[in-house]
Records
---
Amino acid sequence: MKFDPADKIQDLQYFSEFGGVNPSISDSSTYTFTSAKTMFDTFEGNADGCYLYSRHLSPSNLYLGEALAAMEGTETANVSASGMGAITPVLMQLCGAGDHIVSSRTIYGGTYAFLKNFISRFGVETTFVDITKLEVVEAAITKNTKVLYCESVSNPLLEVADIVGLSKLAKKHNLKLVVDNTFSPLSISPAKLGADIVCHSLTKFINGSSDTVGGVVCASQKIIDNLRNVNNGASMLLGSTMDSLRASSVLKNLRTLHIRMKQHSFNAAYLADKFQKDGLKTVYPGLQSHPSHQLFKSMMNATYGFGGMLTIDVGSLEKANELMELMQQKNLGCLAVSLGFYKTLFSAPGSSTSSEIPEEEQAEMGLSNGLIRFSIGLDANIERTYQIMNSCMHQVGLL
């Protein structure tokens, strides 16, 4: 039977100790032991099923992590207080002074800044490449390379990574392939395609209500144990811990992710097709004009579509701002960063979520000032939404 990540989520059920259909929230920062030896064994990592301190693990975080691991098809997972709180410990755990990372050039601005400006202070260097060209990726690998890093669907240009091809390169050169799957939950399952580690910003589609910041690392038990190690684990020592109340909230929202992703994808595909037919410069993996359309199809879990993210390029930041402000006035969505909300969110990433990337590098990768990134919402009548958007575009002189 074909792997369906949503089935894996739905098959998990945790009852509270009182028989509630939702597990009880762990409202403790520390946990008691029946013996001093068990406490010692827990510190040494030799006591499975015991809770030590909530920065290390809590029942609420365990429940959410196991559900996300089931979704991604990994042995286990570790949740964190933010998406960056998931990504940064992974890279610091895998790399030390003198090591090297090969990363996609089009990634979230915060991740780019971490690689370019922060981890370099500790002697870890990064080469940014066009991740869609495997020969370029391999040429960048050196004897000191430890990690290949990419996003399944890149932020904000929506480039698609060949995860199978990258996995083969990683295995050939004894590297870890780390994939940020924030833009394509359920649609793509990187671990099933060969990724060693899969990260998400839970803030986005997985939680879906723009009320919580969170992250997750999905990987093997060995990798997660290393991250949690009390002596040298980056997640444990850097302390980016998710609060139990938030973990419980995200777990509840996760149960409807499969329904939401289908609607996000349906609406985005509808608008992308209309925008392209209107003559707008439109990028969406579901369009045959997308250079990696067939690659995405070969990797995807078709039930969940091509995702809820699309871009259009309107030529200038001034025109982009004019259109976005008008669309917000018409209640078509919100001029805001982030993604995965029930309302459509739009922003000009060159001056917002990708502003950490220098302008010359933005130009080199094809990120123009006039690019608008859309996270398409859950509109019940997407045809009506399009008609109002089309009117806005005529009003600002784009059509």
---
Amino acid sequence: MAKASNSKRLTTPRWQIAADAFVWEAGPGKLVAVDKVASLPLPLLKGIESARETLMENSRRFADGLPANNALLWGARGMGKSSLVKALHAEINRTRKGKARLVLIEIHREEIASLPALLRLLRRQPRQFLLFCDDLSFDKDDTSYKSLKAALEGGLEGRPANVLFYATSNRRHLMPREMMENERSTAINPSEAVEEKISLSDRFGLWLGFHNCAQDEYLAMVDGYSAHFGLKMEREELHRRALAWAAGRGARSGRVAWQFIQDVAGELGKRLT
């Protein structure tokens, strides 16, 4: 009698293949379907037009089965990095049907070490998969970055042609500056001490920077949200309150603009749908 295997087999039920979005759960080794992705219409993302157009073109090529680059969206908090990924996924699929629709899979930072297993699961699937990791960064003594590094370009199998990886981070090199400086100062060969970790960001063909917005850009975000959701308030009053809201939080960003709009909509008894 053959001895039972203790290894965990990764399987994907047929019903999951038809979904357009999943969350990867490394523990049981399965994809959990997401019925509705929390995304905003792409035109509402103001102040990031250049990054928006670049990433959209890259994503469309990939969805069409053409060569495309992994992308690192880095920079200021609240400026629409993760919102952009979700919005372009919805926009690309708006006119596509069946297997031509792009699949978005979220993988949490804590489960990056399981990425090779996920890639093996997706390699033979007939659809295009966009893997997305929000707020990616690595701290001292964290070795899970090696799994990501190998999955992006290295390893014997390499990255499957039907898989692309997008990540957002507040750090351009995915590790804190003080950690880089500390390792350089204490290593026997400082120039090589952090080369392996820094080279991880080099695996991303696209580096898209997101920076704090100016007042005019912030107000344009507020105007865009207000018009889209039909909020009835005089523009001068809306701007006055929006600036006061931003001053109270010490920042101007897309996230702050959205939080302000939610406050105004609640006050006006307007649902944001």
